[in-house]
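From: lab user (bench 3)
To: helpdesk
Subject: output format question, protein + zinc ion

Hello, I'm new to running complex predictions and I'm not sure whether the block I got back is the full result or only part of it. Here's what I submitted:
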Amino acid sequence: MRSIDGVVLKLYHYIKYNMTGGNYFMHEEKEITRLKNFAEDSENIIFFGGAGVSTESGIPDFRSADGLYNQKYKYPPEVMLSRTFFIDNPKEFYDFHRDKIINTQAKPNRAHLALAELESIGKLKAVITQNIDGLHQEAGSVNVLELHGSVYRNYCMKCKKPYGIDIIIKTADNIPVCGCGGIIRPDVVLYKEPLDKNIVSQAVKYISDADMLIIGGTSLSVYPAARLIRYYDGDKLVLINKSVTQFDKHADLLLRGSIGDILGEIIIAI
Ligand code: ZN
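Helpdesk reply: Thanks, we reran it on our side. This is the complete output you should expect:
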Protein backbone atom coordinates (compact mmCIF):
# COMPACT_ATOMS: atom_id res chain seq x y z
CA MET A 1 0.00 0.00 0.00
CA ARG A 2 2.84 2.31 0.87
CA SER A 3 4.15 2.51 -2.67
CA ILE A 4 0.63 3.07 -4.06
CA ASP A 5 0.18 5.96 -1.62
CA GLY A 6 3.47 7.38 -2.83
CA VAL A 7 2.41 7.21 -6.47
CA VAL A 8 -0.92 8.88 -5.69
CA LEU A 9 0.84 11.62 -3.73
CA LYS A 10 3.30 12.30 -6.54
CA LEU A 11 0.45 12.39 -9.07
CA TYR A 12 -1.42 14.85 -6.86
CA HIS A 13 1.65 17.11 -6.64
CA TYR A 14 2.25 16.81 -10.39
CA ILE A 15 -1.33 17.86 -11.23
CA LYS A 16 -1.30 20.64 -8.67
CA TYR A 17 2.07 21.89 -9.91
CA ASN A 18 0.74 22.20 -13.43
CA MET A 19 -2.62 23.64 -12.43
CA THR A 20 -0.89 26.43 -10.50
CA GLY A 21 1.33 27.35 -13.43
CA GLY A 22 4.39 25.85 -11.82
CA ASN A 23 4.18 27.82 -8.58
CA TYR A 24 3.59 24.79 -6.46
CA PHE A 25 6.80 23.08 -5.51
CA MET A 26 6.79 19.34 -5.48
CA HIS A 27 7.75 18.54 -1.91
CA GLU A 28 9.44 15.38 -1.03
CA GLU A 29 7.42 13.44 1.48
CA LYS A 30 10.37 13.49 3.86
CA GLU A 31 10.33 17.30 4.04
CA ILE A 32 6.68 17.38 5.03
CA THR A 33 7.34 14.58 7.51
CA ARG A 34 10.17 16.57 9.06
CA LEU A 35 7.90 19.59 9.34
CA LYS A 36 5.28 17.51 11.11
CA ASN A 37 7.88 15.99 13.42
CA PHE A 38 9.24 19.43 14.29
CA ALA A 39 5.73 20.62 15.16
CA GLU A 40 4.96 17.51 17.19
CA ASP A 41 8.17 17.92 19.20
CA SER A 42 7.59 21.63 19.86
CA GLU A 43 5.64 23.34 22.59
CA ASN A 44 6.69 26.91 21.88
CA ILE A 45 6.26 27.63 18.18
CA ILE A 46 6.54 31.20 16.91
CA PHE A 47 5.50 32.23 13.44
CA PHE A 48 7.05 35.20 11.69
CA GLY A 49 5.29 36.19 8.50
CA GLY A 50 5.26 38.73 5.74
CA ALA A 51 3.23 39.79 2.71
CA GLY A 52 3.38 36.33 1.12
CA VAL A 53 1.01 35.05 3.81
CA SER A 54 -1.70 37.43 2.60
CA THR A 55 -1.15 37.14 -1.15
CA GLU A 56 -3.00 33.81 -1.03
CA SER A 57 -5.98 35.81 0.29
CA GLY A 58 -5.77 38.09 -2.73
CA ILE A 59 -3.91 40.95 -1.04
CA PRO A 60 -1.06 42.10 -3.28
CA ASP A 61 2.52 42.13 -2.11
CA PHE A 62 4.13 45.55 -2.48
CA ARG A 63 7.35 44.10 -3.71
CA SER A 64 6.48 41.06 -5.77
CA ALA A 65 6.39 40.96 -9.55
CA ASP A 66 2.61 41.37 -9.67
CA GLY A 67 2.49 43.64 -6.64
CA LEU A 68 1.73 47.29 -6.17
CA TYR A 69 5.16 48.45 -7.26
CA ASN A 70 4.41 47.39 -10.79
CA GLN A 71 1.06 49.08 -11.04
CA LYS A 72 0.63 52.49 -12.57
CA TYR A 73 0.30 55.37 -10.12
CA LYS A 74 1.26 58.98 -10.08
CA TYR A 75 3.71 58.18 -7.29
CA PRO A 76 5.24 54.87 -6.25
CA PRO A 77 3.66 53.21 -3.18
CA GLU A 78 6.71 53.79 -1.00
CA VAL A 79 6.22 57.52 -1.57
CA MET A 80 2.45 57.49 -1.06
CA LEU A 81 2.79 55.44 2.10
CA SER A 82 5.40 57.70 3.66
CA ARG A 83 4.88 60.01 6.58
CA THR A 84 5.81 63.13 4.62
CA PHE A 85 3.34 62.28 1.84
CA PHE A 86 0.56 61.72 4.37
CA ILE A 87 1.23 65.05 6.10
CA ASP A 88 1.49 66.98 2.82
CA ASN A 89 -1.22 65.17 0.80
CA PRO A 90 -3.74 63.52 3.16
CA LYS A 91 -6.45 63.49 0.48
CA GLU A 92 -4.29 61.57 -2.04
CA PHE A 93 -2.99 59.35 0.73
CA TYR A 94 -6.52 58.36 1.71
CA ASP A 95 -7.60 57.81 -1.91
CA PHE A 96 -4.75 55.32 -2.28
CA HIS A 97 -5.25 53.84 1.19
CA ARG A 98 -8.95 53.14 0.58
CA ASP A 99 -8.39 51.93 -2.96
CA LYS A 100 -5.33 49.72 -2.58
CA ILE A 101 -4.50 49.09 1.08
CA ILE A 102 -7.84 48.50 2.79
CA ASN A 103 -9.44 45.25 1.69
CA THR A 104 -12.30 44.25 3.97
CA GLN A 105 -13.44 41.56 1.52
CA ALA A 106 -10.29 39.44 1.87
CA LYS A 107 -10.70 36.23 3.84
CA PRO A 108 -8.12 34.27 5.82
CA ASN A 109 -6.50 31.43 3.87
CA ARG A 110 -5.26 28.03 5.01
CA ALA A 111 -2.05 29.51 6.41
CA HIS A 112 -3.95 31.88 8.72
CA LEU A 113 -6.34 29.10 9.76
CA ALA A 114 -3.55 26.60 10.44
CA LEU A 115 -1.70 29.08 12.65
CA ALA A 116 -4.88 29.87 14.60
CA GLU A 117 -5.39 26.14 15.08
CA LEU A 118 -1.81 25.66 16.31
CA GLU A 119 -2.38 28.44 18.85
CA SER A 120 -5.70 26.99 20.03
CA ILE A 121 -4.06 23.64 20.84
CA GLY A 122 -1.34 25.42 22.80
CA LYS A 123 1.64 24.79 20.53
CA LEU A 124 1.99 28.19 18.96
CA LYS A 125 2.59 31.13 21.32
CA ALA A 126 2.59 34.11 18.96
CA VAL A 127 2.25 35.26 15.39
CA ILE A 128 4.58 38.10 14.51
CA THR A 129 3.47 39.73 11.29
CA GLN A 130 4.51 42.51 8.97
CA ASN A 131 0.98 42.60 7.54
CA ILE A 132 -1.61 45.22 8.47
CA ASP A 133 -4.73 43.45 7.19
CA GLY A 134 -6.03 41.82 10.39
CA LEU A 135 -6.43 38.42 8.71
CA HIS A 136 -4.68 36.48 11.49
CA GLN A 137 -7.20 37.77 14.03
CA GLU A 138 -10.07 37.07 11.67
CA ALA A 139 -8.84 33.48 11.41
CA GLY A 140 -8.93 33.20 15.20
CA SER A 141 -5.35 33.97 16.24
CA VAL A 142 -5.27 35.78 19.59
CA ASN A 143 -1.66 36.69 20.27
CA VAL A 144 -0.69 38.64 17.15
CA LEU A 145 2.19 41.11 17.18
CA GLU A 146 1.63 43.55 14.35
CA LEU A 147 5.01 45.10 13.65
CA HIS A 148 3.54 47.52 11.12
CA GLY A 149 0.20 48.18 12.81
CA SER A 150 -3.30 47.56 11.47
CA VAL A 151 -5.70 49.29 9.10
CA TYR A 152 -8.46 48.37 11.57
CA ARG A 153 -7.07 50.78 14.17
CA ASN A 154 -7.05 54.51 13.59
CA TYR A 155 -6.64 57.51 15.86
CA CYS A 156 -6.90 61.28 15.99
CA MET A 157 -3.50 62.91 15.60
CA LYS A 158 -4.57 65.75 17.93
CA CYS A 159 -6.47 64.19 20.86
CA LYS A 160 -5.47 60.53 20.24
CA LYS A 161 -9.08 59.34 20.30
CA PRO A 162 -9.22 55.82 18.81
CA TYR A 163 -11.37 55.01 15.80
CA GLY A 164 -12.19 51.82 13.91
CA ILE A 165 -12.06 51.37 10.16
CA ASP A 166 -15.65 52.47 9.46
CA ILE A 167 -14.98 56.19 9.67
CA ILE A 168 -12.15 55.81 7.14
CA ILE A 169 -14.40 54.00 4.67
CA LYS A 170 -17.42 56.24 5.25
CA THR A 171 -15.54 59.47 4.59
CA ALA A 172 -14.88 58.34 1.03
CA ASP A 173 -13.30 61.11 -1.10
CA ASN A 174 -12.58 63.08 2.04
CA ILE A 175 -10.08 63.24 4.88
CA PRO A 176 -11.48 61.65 8.07
CA VAL A 177 -11.60 64.25 10.83
CA CYS A 178 -12.16 63.84 14.58
CA GLY A 179 -14.80 65.77 16.54
CA CYS A 180 -11.95 67.87 17.96
CA GLY A 181 -10.92 68.94 14.45
CA GLY A 182 -7.78 66.78 14.27
CA ILE A 183 -7.02 64.54 11.31
CA ILE A 184 -7.57 60.82 11.90
CA ARG A 185 -4.73 58.61 10.77
CA PRO A 186 -4.30 54.86 10.45
CA ASP A 187 -2.34 53.16 13.22
CA VAL A 188 0.11 51.77 10.71
CA VAL A 189 3.83 52.36 10.42
CA LEU A 190 4.42 54.57 7.41
CA TYR A 191 7.72 54.77 5.58
CA LYS A 192 10.20 56.91 7.53
CA GLU A 193 8.42 56.14 10.79
CA PRO A 194 9.96 54.01 13.54
CA LEU A 195 8.46 50.73 14.72
CA ASP A 196 6.79 50.51 18.11
CA LYS A 197 9.66 49.66 20.47
CA ASN A 198 7.37 47.75 22.80
CA ILE A 199 6.18 45.43 20.03
CA VAL A 200 9.73 44.91 18.75
CA SER A 201 10.98 43.97 22.23
CA GLN A 202 8.07 41.54 22.67
CA ALA A 203 8.93 40.00 19.30
CA VAL A 204 12.58 39.62 20.33
CA LYS A 205 11.50 37.88 23.56
CA TYR A 206 9.17 35.46 21.77
CA ILE A 207 11.76 34.60 19.12
CA SER A 208 14.54 34.16 21.71
CA ASP A 209 12.41 31.75 23.74
CA ALA A 210 10.97 29.77 20.79
CA ASP A 211 11.81 26.12 20.33
CA MET A 212 10.55 26.24 16.73
CA LEU A 213 10.50 29.30 14.49
CA ILE A 214 8.51 29.21 11.28
CA ILE A 215 9.22 32.04 8.87
CA GLY A 216 6.88 32.37 5.94
CA GLY A 217 5.97 34.63 3.08
CA THR A 218 8.78 37.08 3.54
CA SER A 219 11.96 37.68 1.58
CA LEU A 220 13.50 38.82 4.90
CA SER A 221 14.89 41.82 3.08
CA VAL A 222 12.75 44.35 4.93
CA TYR A 223 13.76 45.84 8.25
CA PRO A 224 13.41 44.56 10.93
CA ALA A 225 12.79 40.99 9.80
CA ALA A 226 16.40 40.15 9.10
CA ARG A 227 17.53 41.51 12.45
CA LEU A 228 14.75 39.90 14.50
CA ILE A 229 15.25 36.33 13.37
CA ARG A 230 18.87 36.41 14.49
CA TYR A 231 17.54 36.14 18.05
CA TYR A 232 16.36 32.60 17.41
CA ASP A 233 18.59 30.13 19.20
CA GLY A 234 16.93 26.76 18.51
CA ASP A 235 17.45 24.00 15.98
CA LYS A 236 14.06 24.07 14.25
CA LEU A 237 14.20 27.07 11.96
CA VAL A 238 11.70 26.48 9.16
CA LEU A 239 11.70 28.75 6.14
CA ILE A 240 8.71 28.68 3.77
CA ASN A 241 8.91 30.95 0.77
CA LYS A 242 8.23 30.92 -2.94
CA SER A 243 11.57 32.45 -3.84
CA VAL A 244 15.16 32.27 -2.65
CA THR A 245 16.13 34.34 0.38
CA GLN A 246 19.53 35.25 1.76
CA PHE A 247 18.67 33.23 4.89
CA ASP A 248 18.00 29.93 3.13
CA LYS A 249 21.36 28.58 4.24
CA HIS A 250 20.47 29.12 7.91
CA ALA A 251 17.25 27.10 7.74
CA ASP A 252 17.04 23.69 9.37
CA LEU A 253 14.19 22.97 6.99
CA LEU A 254 13.57 24.83 3.76
CA LEU A 255 10.23 24.54 1.95
CA ARG A 256 9.37 26.22 -1.33
CA GLY A 257 5.79 26.77 -2.34
CA SER A 258 2.36 27.77 -1.13
CA ILE A 259 2.41 28.63 2.55
CA GLY A 260 -1.28 27.72 2.82
CA ASP A 261 -0.67 24.24 1.41
CA ILE A 262 2.40 23.64 3.55
CA LEU A 263 1.00 24.87 6.88
CA GLY A 264 -2.21 23.02 6.11
CA GLU A 265 -0.16 19.81 6.13
CA ILE A 266 0.97 20.42 9.75
CA ILE A 267 -2.62 20.64 10.95
CA ILE A 268 -3.63 17.44 9.21
CA ALA A 269 -0.86 15.68 11.14
CA ILE A 270 -1.51 17.01 14.63
ZN1 ZN B 1 -9.48 64.36 18.17
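A quick orientation on your result: The chain has one domain: 27-269. Let us know if anything else is unclear.
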